[in-house]
């Protein structure tokens, strides 16, 4: 899987930093989410099957999605490349997004790390 996002924990927040040109295509240098607002963390094995809704702003071309998408009145952030699994972070209240869909080197390890830091049961 493509490692398109750097994940870190800082001061009680999940910090997502898109890598390389993904910052430009997705219109984000970083996304900061308080750990206590994370409801769930999942690994989605088939992200291409997920309804994305309208893209604005961002990129949706071939095997690359980067930016803000609006399915069913929600606001989701995608930074995904390729056809492999993605990390899905579900955020209470939808601020800054209701969900994050992220390509990371090891989605399962990232899920476990975030769940542990946010005190979520898997």
Work out the count of structural domains.
Answer: 1
Largest sheet: 6 strands, mixed
Derived from helix and strand composition plus strand pairing, the structural class reads mainly beta
Number of strands: 9
- Average residue-wise pLDDT: 92
| Radius of gyration over C-alpha positions, nearest whole angstrom | 13 Å
Give the DSSP E fraction (strand runs of 2 or more residues): 35-45%
The number of helices is 2
Strand order within the widest beta sheet:
4-8-9-7-6-5
Helical coverage, percent range:
10-25%
Order of helices and strands: EEHEEEEEEEH
Structure overview:
This protein has 122 residues and is mainly beta. Helices cover 12% and strands 44% of the residues. The strands form two sheets. It has a six-stranded mixed sheet, covered by helices on one side. A hairpin with a 7-residue loop joins strand 8 and strand 9. It is globular, with a radius of gyration of 13 Å.
Keywords:
122 residues; mainly beta; six-stranded mixed sheet; three-stranded antiparallel sheet; 9 strands
In short:
The protein has two helices and nine strands. It has 122 residues and is mainly beta.
What topology emerges from the helices and strands here?
Blueprint (H helix, E strand, L loop, with lengths): L4 E6 L2 E6 L3 H4 L5 E4 L3 E7 L9 E8 L2 E7 L5 E6 L4 E6 L7 E4 L4 H11 L5
Parallel strand pairs: 7-9
Antiparallel strand pairs: 1-2, 2-3, 4-8, 5-6, 6-7, 8-9
